[in-house]
Structures are given as C-alpha cells and as structure tokens.
Task: structure prediction
Amino acid sequence: MATSGSIQSPFSPVRRVITGHTPTGKSTVVADTIQPPTFWSPQSISPIYDLCRTGESPAVIDSEIVQGKWVDEIAENGEHVSSDGSVFRVFEFSPGTVSPVHRTVSLDYGIVAKGSMVLELDDGERITLNEGDTIVQRGTMHAWRNESTEWARMYFVVLGAKPIEINGETLEQEWRK
Result:
C-alpha cells in the first residue's frame, strides 16, 4: 500500500514481471519487482506506478542480449508520454481525487480495474466509467475525477501520436492547474 500522506491505498502493491531471453535464446525472467509509486504532487495520496516504457516503435526488446543486461527505460526516463514509443502505467485515485486538466499528444488505452471514474472533457461533457469499462483517449483535453467514496484503479497504455492540427493550430501537450 502506497501513500505520500497519512491515508493509504487499499490496493495490493503493484508487481511487475519482465521477461526476456538468455544468450542462447531461451525465455527467462529479467525482473520481478514490486514497483515503487510516484505521486501527482507531494500532497497527493493517489499513487502512480510506471510499469514499462519504450522509446521507439517498433520497440527494442533485446537489450539483455545486445547490451548484456536488461535496460529499464522507466528508470532512465520517466516522462509522462514517450513520443515515439509507449508507456504502461497504473493510476490509483483516492476518493475525491481530481487530476490536473491536461492533454497529451498520445493515444491512450485505459481500463477501469476497480471502482468508477468520471472523465470530464473541456466542453463540459462528463462520462462515468465503471469497473471493466474501457476508454480510448485520443489527445483530448480532459481531467479524471473520482467522485465516489471508494478508491479506484485504472490501467493505461499510452502510445506516442502525431499532433492534431485544427485550422492551422497544432494541439500540443498542455497541463493546467
């Protein structure tokens, strides 16, 4: 259970298992760890777990063979989006949590694993996603809200995308307070 404040998430720690290959080409486990959390801010009690990052697509998946060791791209670069690759992460939202309003230049696949979350778009539209629901987020300005009294957990795969251009204006990454 992770926390940066006095309230702890009720969810089990996030275990990350990474497979790879031996020098002879056999399958092997290169990492089996409990992933440490990060937080939106020092005051936040809602953890984020970065699980995997690739810097390009197609992904490089043979570092343990080429470099003699597995390279953990999460440890090397923790940016929110990999413009030419992918990021896999877990967000936990405590009751009452509201994410910053933001847009990333990415295609995000999300799954609500536990609880319910409200997606709020910048036109005011609000959609409630419940346990098992999915979202395909296509570079839109939005915020996430946990309006319930229970914790929620969402999994996301974030893929770098081409910026959207509307009437000659490019919609870039943006974070509002």
